[in-house]
Design brief:
Helices cover 20% and strands 38% of the residues. It is α+β, with helices and mostly antiparallel strands.
Length: 462
Amino acid sequence: MTQMIRMLVLPLLLLASLARAELPDFRDLVKETSPAVVNISTVQHMQNNGFQQRYGLPEDVPEIFRHFFGAPGQGPRGGEQERASLGSGFIVSKDGYILTNNHVIKDADEIVVRLNDRRELEAKLIGADESSDLALLKVEAKNLPIVELGDSDALEVGEWVVAIGSPFGFDYSVTAGIVSAKGRSLPNENYVPFIQTDVAINPGNSGGPLFNLDGKVVGINSQIYTRSGGFMGVSFAIPINVAMDVADQLKEKGKVSRGWLGVVIQEVSKDLAESFGLEKAAGALVAQIVPGSPAEAAGLKNGDIITHFNGKSIYLSSDLPHQVGRVKPGSGVKLDVVRNGKRKKINVTIGVLPDGDGAELALNNASPKESTSNRLGVVVSELSDAQRKSVGDGVVVRDVKRGPAAFAGLVNGDIITMIAGDPVRSMDDFNTVVAKLPANRSVPMRIVRRGAAMFIPLRITE
């Protein structure tokens, strides 16, 4: 009986041992990398604002996506106040350069870095880039411990990763998880292909390193998705390859220059793919060309669908800004596009991303002359001089009745500039193009709505 029990227990112990052997051991990684991780405190002299001072958050921060603004405000209810904000960072050079998030040090009057050996050093801001949420600091010290940098492009989904930081001020806290996805696009973050993980990240982790199992930094912990204000299993890190490109530019010039193509793009939906004659919904659809842009100079057209950028596939429209932004201005690139169902290669010299956003296009004061299309169920009119100056050629939608136009999603005020690849310069063009549209087949219609150009699929059923 005893022998039988032993025969049953031994395989179970062996399985348990094998399971333990497959799980990663982070002890050596933490010992080797922790000395290069730092805690960052900032002080800001500011006037008290009840909500902001109490919670350390602007009143307009959305609950779903929020940066980690650090510890609550300290001090009295009124008058000028000093507020400490806690974040993390890591040392990238022995002479004291440190990377962190821009939102950790934004608007700070003083920045204090606390090292692993408990030294506190005042840091100088070398440069910050709001678009990528990165900042480069410098402390006066020598022979500091540094992190080893990895290759975020080589990171794979499902790979183990480790975060070290100061959540809620608890220095050198270690959490682990896996890479959930790569190349994530977040609202208002066009130039960062985020790494998504399930590593526990909380306020104070911002700016801290994300390590792979080799102990190399592959990302900078930056944001979380939350409905509660705390960690809910989804966190995002800036790829280290992107971060170091920004850091090098900040160190050299104090600012960041990004590549610029000069197009307004949109996603290719299933219906749009059908209307353009594509086999699958993929690529970035060019809805508008910015005047004077590299795209215009290269001969890109409205309605072109960019499928590859310098040999790299563009599956989602959000993939394109990530690729363009990392190209050095003045460099030549090759685009693969689909135009009117045919594939073309276009050479483009990438420009420098200009500061600020362009003005919205004016969409009012249309001419009273109108035309009704019973095939579409829409009333259109000629553009006014002001609209034509802002938008170019087209016709403006005055009334949408029951029919294909309503089903396609047209609304009053939309400006139609192209249908099925044919330009619409006037009401005569509009009537001619609509009259020859095929029945029971989707075709692309380009419109301008509140200053933004886009394509929508249109289908006439007869």
